[in-house]
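Supplementary Text 2. Reproducibility record for the structural model of the 191-residue chain.

All settings were left at their defaults, and a single model was retained for analysis rather than an ensemble. We include the record here because the model underlies the residue-level annotations in Supplementary Table 4.
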Amino acid sequence: MSTALIIIIVLAVIVIGYFISTQRSLVNLDELCKNALSQIEVQLNSRFDAVVALAKAAAQYAKHESETILETIQARGGNSGVAANTPAAINAQTDLLSQMMGKLNVVVERYPELKASDLYKETQEGMKQYEEHVRMSRMIYNDTATKMNRMVRQWPSSIVASMLHFDQKEYLKVDDEKKKNYPDLDEAFKK
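Retained model, structure tokens:
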């Protein structure tokens, strides 16, 4: 065998090995992104159930207002009607939950005895836990999407990604209400 043929075979093995390795990494990251979105959907559904429980607790004190909130929930299809399997759907469901919590908070402010009830306190504590789970799940998704996006954009893995039709992942956005509560947040990210 000639030296040139050996060099060509070695180079071909290296290129094929790199292609296979990169494809496996891209598939792994793609699946991690899908899993992270699924975890967020599970957490949002749990949070949604907690909002319904809060609305039902409020029903004991403010029948009309809580019925309006429950009707809004049912009109939007409940938690099973909205599949949160894309970043846009997750952002929409998060916005919907924030709107419902805003309405519910107005009801709670009108009825101090509701705020003092044990059921309300327990459900509110559950909401805090769901909020934390959603926050952590969103961070995991965005971290995984960052890794995926780097592989899709950086050379030479971008060649393999484009050949196999792997695209960049969309990031989950920060809730606009939370931005209002932390005006320095935008400035911190601009630096």
